[in-house]
Specification:
Helices cover 38% and strands 20% of the residues. By secondary structure, the protein is of the alpha/beta class. Strands 3-2-1-4-5-10-9 form a seven-stranded mixed β-sheet, sandwiched between helices. A three-stranded antiparallel β-sheet has the order 6-7-8. The protein is globular, with a radius of gyration of 18 Å.
Length: 273
């Protein structure tokens, strides 16, 4: 898995334009888990400086500015920051890599948010580096919110042309089949890119059971992402010096502390320094 590969994917002008069009500043929460996590964090971090990591074109900006007007946005893709600045020309925004945030000082922020499974764009080893940087930048106490894909969820193991997602029971539906075929007929170039990217990535899939790296269906199977499990993400968070406050599934339900497996597509973690 190459983090530079993912940076190139998200810095592609076509992908950045798609974010600007479809994931702009008014789209709100991605899922109920994110909404629940940000509500929980807001009760602690309201009014404190906020760092919005992997901001893209600014979907989370309006949400986080409800928590605080002391707001800074970063993304490692220059095209994404350009899109953000078109949407929010008066706000602070920087090209920066979450693995090394030397432009910021220790304890500068009260809340750090890394949404949309952004941490999954780096390697398994580098995830610890990212959280270590977040721990350094957070005030004491400070709150971290980030989302991460679940290895046991439906986004892991997807393939082009599928009519049902992995981990979901298959039942043939003429309506679903017509919709799937129609979408492919409307975007034949996207079908070619998806098949090509998925095929070339097959030999690089690394499934360790407790975590894996594999292609993600989004953006024509171009991103090569990290997928976690509950045991893996708990170890990651505690190893970086955080205490988990809550883990939310994508449907907004709380994942109990003794839960070992989940079929959620992703988790949103709220942690305290």
């Amino acid at each position: 898995m190459s983090t530079d590969h993912n940076r190139d994917v998200f810095d592609n002008a076509r992908v950045a334009a798609a974010y600007e069009e479809y994931a702009g500043p008014t789209d709100g929460f991605l899922d109920r888990g994110e909404a629940a996590a940000l509500v929980a964090a807001a009760s602690v971090a309201r009014g404190t400086p906020v760092l919005d990591v992997g901001v893209g074109s600014g979907r989370t900006t309006a949400l986080l500015r409800l928590v605080s007007d002391r707001y800074v946005a970063i993304d490692y893709a220059p095209n994404m920051i350009d899109a953000f600045r078109r949407n929010f020309p008066d706000l602070q925004a920087h090209v920066a890599d979450a693995r090394s945030l030397t432009a910021f000082v220790d304890g500068q922020f009260g809340l750090i948010v890394f949404s949309n499974n952004g941490i999954d764009t780096v390697t398994h080893k580098e995830r610890g580096r990212v959280l270590a940087e977040f721990c350094r930048l957070l005030a004491d106490p400070g709150v971290l919110v980030f989302s991460t894909l679940n290895r046991n969820g439906p986004s892991f193991g997807e393939k082009p042309f599928q009519l049902s997602r992995p981990t979901q029971r298959f039942s043939f539906s003429p309506k679903r089949a017509v919709t799937a075929i129609g979408r492919r007929l409307l975007d034949p170039a996207g079908v070619v890119r998806s098949v090509r990217n998925w095929w070339s990535a097959r030999s690089r899939v690394d499934d360790r059971g407790s975590w894996a790296v594999a292609p993600l269906a989004a953006h024509d199977f171009a991103p090569f992402m990290h997928f976690t499990t509950l045991s893996d993400v708990r170890s990651l968070v505690s190893g970086a010096g955080f205490t988990i406050v809550e883990i939310f599934a994508d449907d907004g339900s709380i994942v109990a502390a003794d839960t070992e497996t989940s079929s959620a597509d992703n988790f949103t973690i709220v942690a305290r320094k």
